[in-house]
Amino acid sequence: MTATSQANGEKYSTQGTVEIIKDHQVNIQVEGPDSVCREEEAVYEVSVTNTGTQAETFRLQADAGDFSQNSIELERDETKTVELVRSSDIAVTDRSFNINAESTSSYAEAFTSTSFNVETCYESETTLNPDSQRTAALTETEFEVEVSNQGTRTDTFNLTTTHGELEQETIDVASGDTVTTDLTYTPEQPENKNIEITATGESTSTVSSSLNVYNGQNVSVNFDSNSQNVCERETFEKQVTVENTGAVEDTYTLQTSQGSLSENEINLETGEDQRS
Asked: Does residue 203 contact residue 124 with C-beta atoms inside 8 Å?
């Protein structure tokens, strides 16, 4: 600023500084999880600060999700925190979204952005090998059970079966790994069976295998049928050969309509024969 004297015409000058202060201003910050599981809620802490010189009410908005309250009243330099909750039933990778606070009575406004990550934390697949099999009744049959963890977190599975016995009923499977256990089953009679395995953890998967059970018991009896002349009250012997032609070990009871047998009961392995 310059002043000029009317008496002598001299000029006098000085300088001053004017600081312009915004009466209306707001700041917004957000903190949230790095990621959540599918169908879980991601909770973001949204902090709003009135950095202006006057009390104001601010309206809160976001591209997605629900606020615990949609507006807040703040005094000068006051900070309040509200929650923003969102979720997804599908996997989402690094999806950014915006959050803003806007004064209801002035030009004050602030924006920020954050990321939304949703993982498939728990997903599994169970397989049963072979997926179909044919076996004889009373024969022990084996299946291989595989449980694959396709999620991003370790899971513990309880295994159940409709038939047979499992080597392990509880298994821990790390993310990306597969654990194998055995199932053994001995069918008692010829029929078609459907064996179902269920692996239950944070996720559940089911698999089935068909089993065709046939009659594995069979026997062949050979008897010397050639005629033979003998005297009255004379004793004679003829051989009987019994062969197990089935697929399983079996026990046989022997009977004759005439005479007596050296054995009345024999046990034979598959393919074994015995003379009596």
From this structure: yes
